[in-house]
UniProtKB/TrEMBL annotation:
It comes from Johnsonella ignava ATCC 51276. The chain crosses the membrane at residues 7-27, 39-63, 84-109, 121-139, 151-170, 190-215, 227-251, 271-295, 307-324, 336-353. Keywords: Membrane, Transmembrane, Transmembrane helix. PANTHER family: CONSERVED MEMBRANE PROTEIN, MEMBRANE PROTEIN. This is Branched-chain amino acid transport system carrier protein. InterPro entries: YkvI-like.
Amino acid sequence: MDKNFNIKTIIIFAGSYVATIIGSGFATGQEILQFFSYYGISGIIGIFIAMFLFSFLGIEFLNRGRIVKPKDTMKMFTLYFGKTLGTLLEYFVPIFFFAVFVVMISGAGDTISEYYGLNRFVGRIAMAAAAYITVSLGLKKLANVIGNIGPVIIIFTISVGLISLLMHLNNLPASLEYFKNTSSSLNKPAPNAVISGLLYTAYNVVVLAGFLGGLGSTAEHKKDTFWGGLLGGVCLMLSAGVMYLAMLAQSEFAFSKDIPTLYLADQISPVIGKLFSIILLLGIFSTATPLLWMCSNRFVPDENPKFKFIALIITILGLIGGMFEFKALVRTIYPYTGYIGIVMMVLIAFKLFKWKREGKTGLEEMQAIENTKE
């Protein structure tokens, strides 16, 4: 049994996991609002479902990456889903990554414009440049950068949520009454909180399989991947849960805001609001950079001399795409990804059952896949 582990590695894995998921949707609070707060008290069920699934998937992807050591992270899709569907996903997923990267660039422009009154182009160019420079450092340096950002975002988000909740806890009964009267008019992503929690996790599977598989390949010990995945999933949804309750306690006001987390922070103090705007930008950055890395890595490994050039071309294209309206991009790109993710989770479960029954780890399959590629 593997008795070795590295606390620093576990924290970096967990932080990278969290930072990859916390993009503009999570950091602004819109994802938490729509997927959980819109369901009232029953939203807590969705929180726990998502926490379990995120923890399980984090452990699985990190540890499988440690075992199979993929040279091309996109081959993780062929490993899990077979040649036909896997090959299809190998081409679809980088396109999706690029599309979400474009959304992050656009969101950064809108964020800086709204908070600081600067031209949207300033925010978009700054975010694109920061993502490119970080990605140019390679996967290990990238993991260190965003791995350190993740814990900062979690600590700040939980702190703001807890303070806001305690400040307005006595308002919770009135807010729940308001929720009952307006619940039917809310545009919910799913019929109930259970499906909503499932959809929220599934939406992120497309991003996680490749990035965490590649990150896990840098691990030496099984316990690093286990505790990194578990800690990442729990911390992610713990912060979501605190924000969910804080928004629910102020549903009459928070539900009408484009950026409910900033509203909560401003209610505590304008200074806290300004600090939270920086956290929001860090959240966008920490999602944009892994997406850019995965897109670039699809063409050449990051140790290849051509990697930086490919990453630069993709960054420029992403910047051009990011000039479109943020909300329009979200409406166009996001809707069906959750349902694709649900299918992926079911197929992953079947694959894990097959490996367990046959006493295999996937290493032989990955070697065969990569040998065929060569």
